[in-house]
C-alpha cells in the first residue's frame, strides 16, 4: 500500500513530489505520456519567480525532479490505465498491474490541441506556441498570427497587441464564436486584423529553423497566400489528461476535474490540482501553488490513518 501516488511530472506533479517527499511519504510519481509536461517543450521561461535571466523549460523541470528525488520521491515511466475507488484507499492500474494507495494527487495537466500540420513538433518553441501569456513578450514589434475563434483566441490576440506590431486573427468561419464582449474587444483593436474564412496550410521556417511565414487558404475563393509572421499562436483549446478517471471522478463538460473544499475531489483521498482542474490561468506558477495545497491536503488526510 503506497501512501501517496502522484500522476504527472510537469510543474504541478513535481511540486507535489517535493512536498510529499519532504513530508516523508516517499511518493511514487508516474511520468505519463508527456514527461515534464508543457514546460518540457518551452525554450525559455521568463515568468517563473527566482530566475532573473529566465531558465529553459526542460532545465527547470530537471531541477524540480532532482529536488524531489533528493527527498525520496520515486519516479516510474508509466501512465494510469484504469482507476477504482475502494474503502479507505484507491486502486490504479499501471502497466497491467493494480497498485493501491491511501492518497492520489492527480496533476496530469492538459495537452494543447495542435493543428497536425507538417513541421509542427520541430517549430514548437521556435515561433510556434500555444500560450500567449508565456511567449508573447518574445515577439515585440513584429507581426504574429493567432489561430482560433473562441474566447481564448480573442483573449490571446488582444493580449498580444501589447507586444506585436500586428496580430492576424485567423478563423475558418466569417465570425468569432467567442463571447460578444471578448469578440468586440478584439475586433475593435486597431492592431488586430481578422482573416476570415481561412485555414492554415503550412508553417514556413527560415534558414535558422525559426518561423518565417504561415501559408493559408481562403475557403471561399480557394486562393492561397503566405502571411509573413514571426510567431503563430495556436488557440484552439486544451484537452485535460483525465481519460482514466472518466465516470469515477467528477468533471465538467470539457473533462476538467472538479475540486471541492480546496483540492479535494468527490472521492476521499483523491486530490486534483494544476491544469487538470484549471482551464482559466494555465500557468506554471499557479499549477505549482495549487498543487502545493493538494500535497498539504493529502498530508492532512493521511494523518487520520496514523492515529
Describe this structure in words.
The structure is a single chain. The strands form 4 sheets. Strands 1, 2, 3, 4, 5, 6 and 17 form a 7-stranded mixed β-sheet that branches. Helices cover 25% and strands 27% of the residues. The longest helix has 23 residues. The mean pLDDT is 94. It is α/β, with parallel strands linked by helices. It is elongated.
Number of DSSP helices? 7
The major beta sheet can be summarized as:
7 strands, mixed
Query: What would you call the structural class?
Result: alpha/beta
Work out the strand percent.
25-35%
Shape: elongated
Number of strands: 17
- Percent of residues in helical segments? 10-25%
Whole-number radius of gyration?
21 Å
Series of secondary-structure elements, N-terminal to C-terminal: EHEHEEEEEHEHEHEHEEEEEEEH
Distance between the termini: 17 Å
Low-confidence stretches: none
Overall mean pLDDT score? 94
Primary descriptors:
307 residues, seven-stranded mixed β-sheet, five-stranded parallel β-sheet, 7 helices, elongated
Topology, element by element:
Blueprint: E1 2-7, H1 11-22, E2 28-30, H2 57-70, E3 74-76, E4 80-85, E5 90-94, E6 97-106, E7 110-112, H3 120-123, E8 128-129, H4 132-135, E9 143-147, H5 151-160, E10 166-170, H6 180-188, E11 192-195, E12 198-205, E13 211-218, E14 224-228, E15 231-234, E16 238-240, E17 270-272, H7 284-306
Question: Could you give a quick summary of the protein structure above?
Answer:
The protein contains 7 helices and 17 strands. It is of the alpha/beta class. Helix 5 links the parallel strand 9 (143-147) and strand 10 (166-170).
Amino acid at each position: 500500500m503506497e501512501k501517496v501516488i502522484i500522476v504527472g511530472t510537469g510543474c504541478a506533479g513535481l511540486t507535489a513530489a517535493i512536498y510529499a517527499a519532504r513530508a516523508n511519504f516517499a511518493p511514487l510519481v508516474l511520468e505519463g505520456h508527456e514527461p515534464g509536461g508543457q514546460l518540457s517543450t518551452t525554450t525559455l521561461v521568463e515568468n517563473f519567480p527566482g530566475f532573473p535571466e529566465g531558465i529553459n523549460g526542460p532545465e527547470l523541470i530537471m531541477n524540480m525532479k532532482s529536488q524531489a528525488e533528493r527527498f525520496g520521491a520515486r519516479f516510474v515511466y508509466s501512465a494510469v490505465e484504469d482507476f477504482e475507488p475502494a474503502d479507505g484507499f484507491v486502486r490504479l492500474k499501471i502497466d497491467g498491474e493494480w497498485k493501491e494507495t491511501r492518497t492520489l494527487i492527480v496533476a496530469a495537466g492538459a495537452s494543447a490541441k495542435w493543428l497536425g500540420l507538417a513541421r509542427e513538433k520541430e517549430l514548437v518553441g521556435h515561433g510556434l506556441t500555444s500560450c500567449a501569456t508565456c511567449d508573447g513578450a518574445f515577439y515585440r514589434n513584429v507581426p504574429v498570427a493567432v489561430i482560433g475563434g473562441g474566447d481564448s483566441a480573442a483573449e490571446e490576440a488582444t493580449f498580444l497587441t501589447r507586444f506585436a506590431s500586428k496580430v492576424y486573427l485567423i478563423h475558418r468561419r466569417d465570425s468569432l464564436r467567442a463571447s460578444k464582449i471578448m469578440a468586440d474587444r478584439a475586433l475593435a483593436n486597431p492592431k488586430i486584423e481578422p482573416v476570415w474564412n481561412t485555414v492554415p496550410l503550412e508553417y514556413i521556417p527560415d534558414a535558422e529553423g525559426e518561423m518565417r511565414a504561415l501559408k493559408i487558404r481562403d475557403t471561399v475563393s480557394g486562393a492561397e497566400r503566405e502571411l509573413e509572421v514571426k510567431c503563430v499562436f495556436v488557440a484552439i483549446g486544451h484537452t485535460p489528461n483525465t481519460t482514466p478517471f472518466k465516470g469515477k471522478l467528477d468533471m465538467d463538460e470539457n473533462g476538467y476535474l472538479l475540486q471541492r473544499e480546496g483540492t479535494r475531489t468527490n472521492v476521499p483521498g483523491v486530490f486534483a490540482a494544476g491544469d487538470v482542474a484549471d482551464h482559466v490561468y494555465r500557468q506554471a506558477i499557479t499549477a505549482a501553488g495549487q498543487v502545493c495545497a493538494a500535497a498539504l491536503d493529502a498530508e492532512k488526510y493521511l494523518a487520520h490513518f496514523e492515529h
